[in-house]
Amino acid sequence: MAVYQLDKNLWFPDPHLGEEDGLVAVGGDLSVDRLLFAYSYGFFPWFSFRHREEPLWYCPLQRFVIFPNEIHVSHSMKQLIRNTHLRPTINKDFEGVIKGCATAQNRNQEEGAWLGPNMIKAYTELHRQGFAASVEIWEEERLVGGLYGVNLGKAFFGESMFSLVPNASKLALIHLARMFETLGGVLIDCQFETPHLRSMGGRYIPYEEYISIISK
Q1: What's the pTM value of the predicted model, to 2 decimals?
Q2: Considering only CA atoms, which of 12, 105, 15, 117 is closest in space to residue 62?
Q3: Tens of pLDDT along 160-203?
């Protein structure tokens, strides 16, 4: 097992050579070209912005994903969707969503906070160029939840989500899955397992299956 030092060239090592937790490489930058190259092979940056200047790049060999046609909507969420005053939109306020993901529940004050200024700048530029998207949840004119991620072809690579009111992030994920399936999307990469995501249909698939899907 090893962690590789990246340079100015666009390359990533074989993820099978990385650490057990999925850490494969360190260094490089957060340019649009590098990020698009990384996601095309299942890599993503994740590092504590207070403690590191260089990105850490992960590519777990067991991928936690949601297939849009398998999204689980509980009975209580079905009732909420029918009766809620919350309103979902797509790509109406990307900057508001990514800032919400960074600061909700004082996340940016936590010791291991990863969504710092450089990451926000990088993904905002990805969005400006059409490669990153957001789902917003509104309570009247107030942004109360949402999620954002990278969209390449038929795969959506989820980055983060937040809620300022109960169930807002679940509503955002359900809206994403339903809209993405309608548009021909086949996979939502969740990066890491959480009870929240597992309850909504998340499951593990091996990297070989994962890469065969995202490479189509």
Answers
A1: 0.95
A2: 15
A3: 999 999 999 999 999 999 999 999 999 999 999 999 999 999 99
